[in-house]
Amino acid sequence: MNISTVQKKLEELSEINYEVHIGKSNEVNFLKIMILKFIGEYGFGSAGNSDAIFMRAMGEAVLEAWNPGGLIIDLSELFYEWGDQLEDVFYVGSYKYRDRPFPIAIIVGDKSEEAIRTLILGIVSTEGIDEIGWVFKDLSSAWEYIETKLKEYNSQKLL
């Protein structure tokens, strides 16, 4: 029998880099908050599909490895113009945390804000990014949002 295989690595899907940072929640002392930062250039349109697959896979992997109570996806250093599959990244953890609340916040930057705004709200929307409620322009606001959600869920005995 002749078996032919090719070795593959997730990193082959994308040139986007990532960083993981974890900090302790100030509101719920037994939980941690994770920051998953993506850095680089997301492919335009369908050229970004493999980037989205890579980002989602890395997101699921780091959640499994460190099991945080909340997640901040930092896209402040990601250049993103268009590509619908990026939205899949916003649902990282939806399977793992299907039985309990899991707050997620997104941070946008100058190179991603407008495209993410239109991805979420629609191309003809006039609403600003601030009106989404879970998308922010800085880490402090995103962290505060996650802390508020964790406190709310904990007081409702959902955690």
Task: Give me some keywords for this one.
4 helices, alpha/beta, five-stranded mixed sheet, 159 residues, globular, single chain
Could you walk me through the main structural features you see in this protein, from its secondary elements to its overall organization?
The chain is of the alpha/beta class. Helix content is 30%, strand content 22%. It has a five-stranded mixed β-sheet with strand order 1-2-3-4-5, with helices on both faces. Strand 3 (70-79), helix 2 and strand 4 form a beta-alpha-beta unit. The termini are far apart.
What topology does this entry show?
Layout: E1 17-24, E2 32-41, H1 49-66, E3 70-79, H2 86-89, E4 104-108, H3 113-121, E5 135-136, H4 139-155
Parallel strand pairs: 2-3, 3-4, 4-5
Antiparallel strand pairs: 1-2
Could you provide a short overview of the structure?
By secondary structure, the chain is of the alpha/beta class.
* Percent range for β-strand residues: 15-25%
> Care to count the β-strands?
5
Distance between the termini: 53 Å
- Please tally the helical runs, counting DSSP H or I stretches of 4 or more residues: 4
Give Rg in angstroms: 17 Å
